[in-house]
């Protein structure tokens, strides 16, 4: 993986990976329903921006998806961060995103 680190103090864990930028993907995941023991299933489809984030130790790897063409009805953001094991390339891209 070729990536450039954004070394500003507030962004130490964020970096850009040009090898994934522009890949069309679908991601699935869930979210806890506030005030209950239930969860919801959410699906997003869009294009990887190339931005990555590592969180925790050992790190969880997150990818930013932008240009969203599918998202939950009440989701107002223009992009979403998803853990990379729940992201699947679409179209001619058959390689795993990692």
Mean pLDDT: 83
Order of helices and strands: EEEEEEE
Instruction: Provide the number of structural domains.
Output: 1
Please tell me what the overall shape is: globular
Word description of this protein:
With about 100 residues, the protein is mainly β. The chain has one domain (about 5-90). It is built from no helices and 7 strands. It has strands at about 5, 15, 25-30, 40-55, 60-70, 80-85, 85-90. Strands 1, 2, 3, 4, 5, 6 and 7 form a 7-stranded antiparallel beta sheet that branches. A hairpin with an 8-residue loop joins strand 1 (about 5) and strand 2. It starts with a strand and ends in a 9-residue tail after the last strand. The model is unreliable at about 1-10 (pLDDT under 50).
Tags for this entry?
98 residues; mainly beta; seven-stranded antiparallel β-sheet; disordered N terminus
């Amino acid at each position: 993986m070729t990536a450039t680190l954004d070394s500003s103090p507030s962004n130490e864990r964020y970096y850009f990976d040009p090898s994934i930028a522009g890949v069309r993907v679908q991601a699935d995941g869930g979210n806890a329903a506030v005030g209950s023991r239930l969860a919801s299933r959410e699906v997003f489809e869009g294009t990887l921006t190339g931005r990555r984030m590592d969180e925790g130790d050992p790190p969880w790897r997150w990818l930013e998806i932008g240009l969203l063409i599918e998202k939950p009805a009440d989701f107002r953001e223009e992009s979403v961060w998803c853990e990379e094991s729940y992201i699947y390339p679409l179209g001619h891209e058959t390689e795993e995103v990692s």
